[in-house]
Structure formats: structure tokens, C-alpha cells
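Subject: Ribulose 1,5-bisphosphate carboxylase large subunit structure
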Amino acid sequence: MTRFHVTYRLVAADRAEARARAEGIAYEQTVEVPPDVVPPGRIAQEIVGRIETLEPAGEGVFRTTISYSPDSAGRDVVQFLNVVFGNSSIQTGIRVEAVDPGPEMTRRLTGARFGVEGIRRLCGRPRGGLIAPVLKPQGLDAASLAAIARRCALGGADIVKEDHGLGDLPSAPFRARVEAVTAALAAVQAETGRRPLYFAVLPGQRTEEAIAFAKAAGVDGLLVMPGLHGWGLMARIAGDDTLEMPVMAHPAFTGAFVQSPAAGIAHGVLYGTLQRLAGADISVFPNVGGRFGFSEEDCRAIARSCLDPTGPGRPILPSPGGGMSVDRAAGMRAMFGEDVCYLIGGSLLRHGERIGEEIARMRRALDEEIA
């Protein structure tokens, strides 16, 4: 059975300490008992993590790759993540730099149902970047949000995405909001013969009821925050043959994992590889030049991990947001290429009734780059 591999960056004074730290991870992430307590035989030989490599990576820094048995993870993405970086995430000086699930874990885990090709097919956009305006701000009522959705649809948006902060608030309760937006988009389709995909953000409670309601109401996809809703929910939606709904993953509550180069999880792993394994079709992340401080290399690493044809499962769409504007479209295409989903929020809302015109202008800019 092919083992899966995780590469960790370790802070250690010398090779002996690095070796001890690597051994500690191998036990901590699997049996979680001291070596002398591990039963002999299969558990000691197969279940305990194996140190495959240990090399220096700079002064006071080492890099180790540890392999794990797929039977430590089963068929559950939550348990898989628990093995990758469960208890060790609580320790200092350990950072996950790469995850290679191997063929067996890739087969066992859900993965993206639609991926890049599937989302393009649903949008009717075979080439070029996808435009995804965001319904916001928090505090607007359902009718006002639906009016914004209508303007975005008439402007030629590919996806209309709810802001992750809309939840199930008194100003625009989930059900009322979903009904208003789906009605507005249905009207646009009746008028023009086309409408964008609509991704609704799930509330934190009575989630299964909300999923069923969204499906019945005509919502196309679901926005999930794995850092809050849980990675298992995303995998559950992606794996449900009766739903057939794409998933957009939002990074809320995960930022602390990527802020330090000495701890946490590498950007490309968290927002690329792990999203692919857990079932996201679109992975949202803060764009360079915005208010969140991700560097150009951070963003490129995420996009590479999302789109790598040799990665696990289907390639998925990277979706930069935060600080995006129509005027940055050409530069962003040069950076990310064609397979990208652009989130546009606050900068678009400045145009009020002319939101649709701005979306159309962005479409022209992106299409000119293709030509």
C-alpha cells in the first residue's frame, strides 16, 4: 500500500535535535505514545510514521519528509489532516511545507467534483478568467442584495458569490436572501437567456437543512469556510451525488496558519493541495496588493498548487480577492493566466447602479488579453 508523505520544516540547533523532533512528529501524529509503549509488529512497522529524509535547510533549520500509512487516515479527510498536522500544529518551530497524498489517499478522499473544467462548463465560459462579484455588505436586506445580484448578472458576471459574512443574520436571513437572489437571477435568465452561477454562504447552524433548502431553491453552489464550518463538511458536500453542487472554499479563520515562515502550513499546501483533497472546486485567497499582506510568491504558490496537473484529483480554480478591481484585470491575468476566478467586492460597489457596466468593462479587458 502506497504511503503518503508530508514534508516539515523544523527549527533545530543541530542534526541530533532535528532527528529527535522528526521522530517526535512520527509518533505524535500516529500512535501518540512513547516508542517503548508501541506494540510490536504491524503497528510499529506500518502505523508509526517513517522518517524518509532529513536534510539541513539553512542555519538552525532542517527539512524532513515523513511517510504515513493510509490506514492511519482511513477514508476521512478530517482524520487525514489530523495525521498531517494534528498535535504537531500545537508545537513551535514546525511548518508543513508539502503534502503528497500518493495514489492510495487520493483515491480514498473525495476531491473536487467539478474542478476547472466542470466549473467552466457550468458557467459556459470555455476560456478566459471568470468574473465573480461579491454580494455585500453585511446589513443590507435581502431585496437590496438581490438587486445587486441582478445588476451583476446583467453585466455578464460568471459567478455571483455571497460575502462570507452574510450568514443567517436578521438583516437578510438565509432563506429570505436565497429566495430573493434566485428569483432575481431567474428573471435575468428569462430576459437574456443567461445567468451566472449563484454561490450562497452556508450558515453555521442547521447546516444540513440549509443545504437542502439551497438546492431546492435553485442555488448553484455553496460557499464553505473550512476553518469554521469544518473540512469534513466540504468533503461531505463534494461527495454527495444527490446534490451535484460545486464548492467554493473561503479562507476565513485560517490565516494564522500561514503568517509565520517557522510554523503553520505553507500557502500552497493550505489553499491549494488540501483544498483539492477536501473537495473544493474554487479556492479563495487574499490577492497580492490588497489589505491582507500575501506576497506575489505566496499567491503564485497557491495558484500553482490549485492548477498543477500532477496534483491530487482535479485541478481547481484559484480565486484571488481582496483589493481586486477592474483596472487590475490585465495585470492579474498576466500573473495568474486564464484559469482563475476573480472576486470583486468593495471596488465594484463604488459604482452603484453602474456595477454591470464595470463588469462588462472587465470582461472586455480579459477577452482582449485572450485575443
